[in-house]
Design goal:
The chain is an all-alpha fold. It contains 1 helix and no strands.
Length: 69
């Protein structure tokens, strides 16, 4: 015995699907914002590390105690 869905049941299903889709979109948007923030932080840290390395390399070349640093 098959039961056919009424128009109201189809409408409820459609509304539920739209709600789930919107929830997934919000989650993805939040994840995307977090990912961009992590990329920015990683880039800033990489730049800082390169600058520190350049400073250390310059100090090693200019000072007689370079091996002690």
């Amino acid at each position: 015995m098959t039961t056919e869905l009424t128009k109201a049941a189809w409408r409820r299903r459609a509304l539920r699907a739209e709600h789930e889709l919107e929830t997934l979109r919000r989650i993805r948007s939040f994840e995307h914002k977090q990912e961009l923030q992590m990329v920015r932080v990683d880039a800033a840290q990489a730049t800082a590390l390169r600058e520190i390395q350049n400073i250390l390399n310059d100090l090693r070349g200019d000072e007689p105690t370079a091996g002690l640093i």
